Amino acid sequence: MDYILTTLGNLVQQTAFLNLTWGNLVMIAVACFFLYLAIKHGFEPLLLVPIAFGMLLVNIYPDIMLHAEDAANGTGGLLYYFYVLDEWSILPSLIFLGVGAMTDFGPLIANPTSFLMGAAAQFGIFTAYLGAMAMGFSDKAAAAIAIIGGADGPTSIFLAGKLQQTAILGPIAVAAYSYMALVPIIQPPVMKLLTTDKERKIKMEQLRPVSKLERILFPIIVTIVVCMILPTTAPLVGMLMLGNLFRECGVVRQLTETASNALMYIVVILLGTSVGATTSAEAFLNLDTLKIVALGLVAFIFGTAGGVVLGKIMCVVSGGKINPLIGSAGVSAVPMAARVSQKVGAEYDPTNFLLMHAMGPNVAGVIGTAVVAGTFMAIFGVM
């Protein structure tokens, strides 16, 4: 009988029920809410489902993120090893490879002025940088937080790792991916506030055809130019352009399919669950995290506004030929931000097709955010 009671007592002690804190319960509720948004409303489910599930796991069983050096047997938790790949910038770079292989750069090549809207959308990053400095964060921490404004999760993780801001990498990554998923909610009010009905109904001329030679040369030239100026951007820009070269050269179909499908989805699983697993109650429920989330939202709103405002200026300069709504796609959430531009435009004129026009600023935003990250690294002397 004593043996049975002891065994049952040990089993009870091992259950999570006796070890959960109120903070764990809060984070489990947040994880369930994220799962609801992803499954019920379709908000970037490929991102939110693994992130939310990683959040769920770590708050039920914290040792799933146990550092190998802290383990009695020298073996860390499963998601710890996934997370190491984030810290080493491996997974963010592979994500860029997949994005390049999946994305058509033709709209950007056909309309190079899209680069300007992509650049204007980076305004939110510098706004958040100044705000983070004012809130007491160090210069490197402020830079890592500010990059959230680009709505680019991989770049946020990459920069935080390079600037050795691993203590806040979790909140930064979760904020960046959360805002990427919430693009359809956050952007439309800003877009409508800054544009008129007449501007939203502007129909843009069809983009010119882009030759195969242009498509092949573009990733090569961008890699040479950008990486010569900012060599530290090579892991991101280089992988992005390599993936696109796979897509456009026409001789490596198997590599294109692997990078844009199997490899991409494997990396999303590893990155998403490991990012979610950084949100233990002890690490996430504190004042600094709330500041990071708030600054990320401010950066994202200002980034959207910057792209739309420049779109309005370009609309005037072009004699009303550019719909300012496409400027909001200058953030790096590919292709969600471009889809939002299309959706908002279609609300006012169902025959208006802005998607391909919006893809130009969208691709430019991906490149622009990587360039800003490289600039921060150059400023702080990080290689």
TrEMBL record:
<dbReference type="InterPro" id="IPR005661">
    <property type="entry name" value="OadB_MmdB"/>
</dbReference>
<feature type="transmembrane region" description="Helical">
    <location>
        <begin position="20"/>
        <end position="39"/>
    </location>
</feature>
<keyword id="KW-0813">Transport</keyword>
<feature type="transmembrane region" description="Helical">
    <location>
        <begin position="292"/>
        <end position="310"/>
    </location>
</feature>
<feature type="transmembrane region" description="Helical">
    <location>
        <begin position="362"/>
        <end position="382"/>
    </location>
</feature>
<feature type="transmembrane region" description="Helical">
    <location>
        <begin position="216"/>
        <end position="242"/>
    </location>
</feature>
<protein>
    <submittedName>
        <fullName>Sodium ion-translocating decarboxylase subunit beta</fullName>
    </submittedName>
</protein>
<keyword id="KW-0812">Transmembrane</keyword>
<feature type="transmembrane region" description="Helical">
    <location>
        <begin position="141"/>
        <end position="160"/>
    </location>
</feature>
<feature type="transmembrane region" description="Helical">
    <location>
        <begin position="167"/>
        <end position="186"/>
    </location>
</feature>
<feature type="transmembrane region" description="Helical">
    <location>
        <begin position="322"/>
        <end position="342"/>
    </location>
</feature>
<keyword id="KW-0915">Sodium</keyword>
<keyword id="KW-0472">Membrane</keyword>
<feature type="transmembrane region" description="Helical">
    <location>
        <begin position="46"/>
        <end position="68"/>
    </location>
</feature>
<feature type="transmembrane region" description="Helical">
    <location>
        <begin position="262"/>
        <end position="280"/>
    </location>
</feature>
<keyword id="KW-0739">Sodium transport</keyword>
<feature type="transmembrane region" description="Helical">
    <location>
        <begin position="115"/>
        <end position="135"/>
    </location>
</feature>
<feature type="transmembrane region" description="Helical">
    <location>
        <begin position="80"/>
        <end position="103"/>
    </location>
</feature>
<dbReference type="Pfam" id="PF03977">
    <property type="entry name" value="OAD_beta"/>
</dbReference>
<keyword id="KW-0406">Ion transport</keyword>
<keyword id="KW-1133">Transmembrane helix</keyword>
<keyword id="KW-1278">Translocase</keyword>
<keyword id="KW-1003">Cell membrane</keyword>
